[in-house]
């Protein structure tokens, strides 16, 4: 089992893994249509998308938390 102290890193890792997969599948399908090698094209795009999504999430999550804090009432 992974120690809880790694949760702040594991959450964006897992979240971006799934989000990059879904978005890259949709965009690959929209831009290229059904292709015989769709799975390979999608996997290549997924890896590329995830390589950008994970570091972006590490930067965006603290900023998003701050913005949500400003927009919501303490209570």
Produce the secondary structure layout.
Elements: H1 7-32, H2 38-71
Helix pairs in contact: 1-2
Can you tell me the overall shape? Answer: elongated
Q: From the alpha-carbon coordinates, what is the Rg to the nearest angstrom?
A: 16 Å
Number of helices: 2
Based on helices, strands and strand pairing, what is the structural class? Answer: mainly alpha
Distance between the termini: 34 Å
Beta strand count:
0
Helix-strand topology string: HH
Task: Please give a structural write-up.
With about 80 residues, this protein is mainly alpha-helical. It has helices at about 5-30, 40-70. It contains two helices and no strands. Helix 1 packs across helix 2. About 10% of the residues are buried. It starts with 6 loop residues before the first helix and ends with a helix.
Summarize the structure.
By secondary structure, this protein is mainly alpha-helical. It has 2 helices and no strands. It is 80% helix and 0% strand.
Please supply descriptive tags for the structure shown above.
0% strand, elongated, mainly alpha, 75 residues, 2 helices
């Amino acid at each position: 089992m992974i120690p809880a102290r790694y949760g702040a890193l594991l959450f964006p890792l897992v979240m971006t893994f799934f989000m990059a997969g879904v978005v890259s599948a949709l965009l690959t399908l929209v831009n290229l249509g059904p292709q015989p090698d769709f799975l390979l094209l999608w996997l290549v795009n997924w890896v590329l998308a995830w390589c950008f999504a994970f570091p972006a999430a590490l930067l965006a999550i603290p900023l998003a938390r701050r913005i949500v804090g400003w927009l919501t009432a303490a209570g």
